[in-house]
Amino acid sequence: MPPKGKRKDASAANKTGPAGSKGTAQPPKSPPPNWPPLRPLVPASDLSLSTTLPNQIVTIRNFWPASLCKMYVSFLASLPLTTTPGKPKKGDAVRVNDRFQVEDARFAEMLWEETALKGLVVGEEDGFGVGEDDGLALSEEERRELWGGDVVGLNPNIRIYRYKKGQFFDQHYDDFNNVTIPGDPPIQARTTWTLLLYLTSPATGCLGGETVFYPEPPPGKKGKSQPVEPVVVGLEVGMALLHRHGAECMLHEGREVLEGEKWVIRSDLCVRR
Ligand SMILES: O=C(O)CCC(=O)C(=O)O
Ligand SMILES: [Fe+2]
Question: What is the pTM of this model?
Fold first, then answer.
């Protein structure tokens, strides 16, 4: 559990207006980009959820094929990314990367509905070819418990990160946010898991940049606890990673990029509130 007052992802609290209700700072307003179509995609029947750390980290390998990732990196490089300040406000994590942040419910919906993500997370046949086998074989009840409720979509707050050589995201916890998913009627929701979609890897010349999680040691006898090995998730082109955030978020970081560029698309899973 994140200790009170510990370093947070500054962007998590950086929301007001339709998508958020907790923060005070205004996010930079960017018009929604003209996102390229999400094609080609790997059929959902060829994809599955796999558990990296029970109840904490779930991945989908090859969620986006390499060709789509490559095309997206070229497109994203044309967006007006801004370098985050190296000196954080009190309580925020040191985060040195270039980012683009936009409120874009349309893109969040594309990423949720047009890909295999919804079918895998919600576990329903959605016309995209998803059967019963999401890889985790969860009951309805286990599914609700895992995702923290009834998942209704993705956070419209879309963040694009580019880390160049020497850039990193220091250790922090991701907070949850209350969001409104536009629609008729709009859905009042709360974020429960972070979604990271990696577009680059050593295969594209990006070395380093792993996302590293620090599980809390189980309480030992007489208050002494055993050290627990960090969980290092190496970059893979097109891999989606979901990790639990909010009260049960693990301390984590994006390690320094040693060579090339790391590109990530970030959103969050949202449940009905
Ligand atoms: O880029 C990464 O590997 C981690 C990003 C992250 O922790 C975040 O967006 O909160
Ligand atoms: Fe994070």
Answer: 0.90
